[in-house]
Amino acid sequence: MKLSHALLALQAVTSREVAKFVRQGGRLASALVRPLLWLVVFAAGFQNVFGVSIIPPYDTYIPYQTYIVPGLLGMVLLFNGMQSSLAMVYDREMGVMRLLLTAPLPRAYLLFAKLLAGTLLSVLQAYVFLAIAALFDVGVPWSGWLYALPVLVLSGMMLGALGLLLSVHVKQLENFAGTMNFVIFPMFFVSPALYPLWKLEESGASVIHFIASWNPFSHAVEATRFALYGQWAPQSLAIVVGCLAVFFLLAAWGYDPQRGIVKRAGKPGGA
């Protein structure tokens, strides 16, 4: 594979994803309405009532509205990653994926290009939300916007890779509602997006605390939270990178015509 061919393929896949996003005018609004509702409506009720500490040693308390911003950024990335999964299922049913994956380039690279294109859109939407959140004086320093960029890219890629993996197993668009119930909502609510994990442990919810500690989304949120304030969470970042690698490799294996969805479908090029 020549570098020029690889870059041309990446440009083509990215251009297609951006063009789809531009044509779907309500997609940006739908991606922002959920986190903005949490920020403006839900958090407003706790603004002066519930304060949480942001980083160890848990002795600096901040308004709840400020605390949940990293979690809401994660929400944007999570839902967009799952939206990419839905788009993959649709493209497979319409035959678009068959055409894409029969291009004379390694299948794993084509999937990686698809992942990068989806991540680009996810990060752009996350920054649009961050800009709107800044209007409500949520207390995120401007330098945090720069620090958070690599973390948001890695987190977006991890969640996008999870979406790729789910698209291997979701056979029809009608089954996507189950994905919402059994993947998206548990990942979001069993995480420190809305409340710190140490409060779970302190309140005796040890089982939920244990599950949340093993939730990849938890570490994406924690890494983002630290980065927004100019600090790094190396353990969370390592887990995000590790999950990204595992999810993508499993997705590439699933789209392999010799082992994955094509073989199960019983026809060549069924991806």
TrEMBL record:
It is found in: Cell inner membrane; Membrane. One of its GO terms (molecular function) is ABC-type transporter activity. It holds the Pfam family ABC2_membrane. Keywords: Cell membrane, Membrane, Transmembrane, Transmembrane helix, Transport. One of its GO terms (cellular component) is ATP-binding cassette (ABC) transporter complex. Residues 26-258 form the ABC transmembrane type-2 domain. It comes from the Bacteria. The keyword Cell membrane applies. NCBIfam families: phenyl_ABC_PedC (TIGR03861). It comes from Parazoarcus communis. This is Transport permease protein.
